[in-house]
Amino acid sequence: MRAIIAGGTGFIGRALIAELQKNNWEIIVLSRTPSRVAEVFGSGVIGMVWNGGGDWSSLLGPQTVVVNLAGENISGRWTTAKKQRILESRLKAGEKIVQAVKSSEQPPAALIQASAVGFYGPHQSTPLNEEHPGGTGFLADVARQWEDSTKSLEKLGVRRCIIRTGMVLGHGGALKQMLPPFRMFMGGPVGHGHQGVSWIHLLDEVRAIRFLMENESEAGAYNLTAPNPTDFNKFAKILGEVLNRPSWLRTPPFVLRALFGSMADELLLTGQFALPEALQRAGFEFRFPDLKSALSDLLAR
Ligand code: NDP
């Protein structure tokens, strides 16, 4: 089988490609700078340009699964221009995939469409499964439009799985940004600490994506989150224990708002307790269902 991965050069994409290569998938990465694909992956992965008119529609067909991970990274200060890039990069990626499928002779077998648990908007303590409706706020709006950007492919018979991903824990991403204060004995929760943290180990993230790519009976929305979401107070406590560092130095909301603008309120000071009900119903088994085992695995290396 062939995987065509948009945004495959990123944090999740690289791990996904390693997982797929172990399982004999042929990989093509759609990138804004295909020369980086060769730099990152060597000759085993083909890189194709897809902005500015690169035509990759002839690569599609029934033995192909497209994975859409592309989009401007959401970390950093959310200026008006940054928010626009966050939204538009995702809508353009969806649009380009739809155009390619429509102009192909044969559609792909499936599309894995990235999204995020931010789809549900901020929620205090209610556990959220995939049936829960979309919420309000910038991230929820982006996620809804992002999910909808490829919805028309379902009418063409493409099996579509939407992956509403939580905070992915690996050697990179959010965890990399959290570690320095903890290592310097200055770590702790942010804000009141009761906000939900729906997390997933990077290995389970890419195993779940492969599971959905390979299971022909699966379609619809899936929370890609471990079955034991926690709150920020417990997250900081467990991270401190695993690193053998204190975890009581709380970052007040005004500091986060000064640093990150409205991103602080939407991503750091509020959260969700999402549950992977659809994945578990489908028979997926997590290697790292609890936070301590996930962090110990990542930080003991
Ligand atoms: P990364 O930011 O690491 O990678 C995303 C890829 O998208 C990049 O490698 C890049 O590929 C491409 N890209 C970046 N900016 C733009 C842009 N402005 N326009 C078009 N393409 C762009 O993301 P992750 O791997 O961490 O995540 C993959 C997807 O999953 C993202 O859309 C993210 O929002 C979502 N997600 C991630 C979570 C996480 O914890 N990591 C949590 C929830 C959702 P290239 O330069 O080769 O074109």
Task: Give the SSE layout.
Elements: E1 2-6, H1 11-22, E2 26-31, H2 34-41, E3 46-49, E4 64-68, H3 80-102, E5 110-116, E6 127-128, H4 138-148, E7 159-165, E8 167-169, H5 173-183, E9 196-197, E10 199-201, H6 202-214, E11 220-224, E12 230-231, H7 232-243, H8 253-260, H9 262-268, E13 273-274, H10 277-281, H11 291-299
Helix pairs in contact: 1-6, 3-4, 7-11, 8-9
The structure holds NADPH dihydro-nicotinamide-adenine-dinucleotide phosphate.
Task: Give the structure's gist in a few sentences.
The protein is of the alpha/beta class and 301 residues long. The chain has a domain of 205 residues: 3-Layer(aba) Sandwich (Rossmann fold).
Low-confidence stretches: none
CATH topology group of the domain at 2-169 and 201-225 and 274-285: Rossmann fold
What is the C-alpha radius of gyration, as a whole number of Å?
A: 19 Å
- What best-fitting shape do the alpha-carbon axes yield? globular
Structural class category: alpha/beta
Proportion of strand residues: 15-25%
* CATH homologous superfamily placement of the domain at 2-169 and 201-225 and 274-285: NAD(P)-binding Rossmann-like Domain
The helix/strand order is EHEHEEHEEHEEHEEHEEHHHEHH
How many β-strands, per DSSP?
13
For the record, give the distance between the C-alpha atoms at the N and C termini, rounded to a whole number.
Answer: 32 Å
Which molecules other than protein and nucleic acid are bound?
NADPH dihydro-nicotinamide-adenine-dinucleotide phosphate
Helicity range: 25-40%
Oligomer designation? single chain
**Strand ordering within the main sheet:** 3-2-1-4-5-7-11
DSSP helix count?
A: 11
InterPro entries: DUF1731 (IPR013549), Epimerase_deHydtase (IPR001509), NAD(P)-bd_dom_sf (IPR036291), SDR39U1 (IPR010099)
Family: Belongs to the NAD(P)-dependent epimerase/dehydratase family. SDR39U1 subfamily.
Protein name: TIGR01777 family protein
Organism: Pseudodesulfovibrio senegalensis
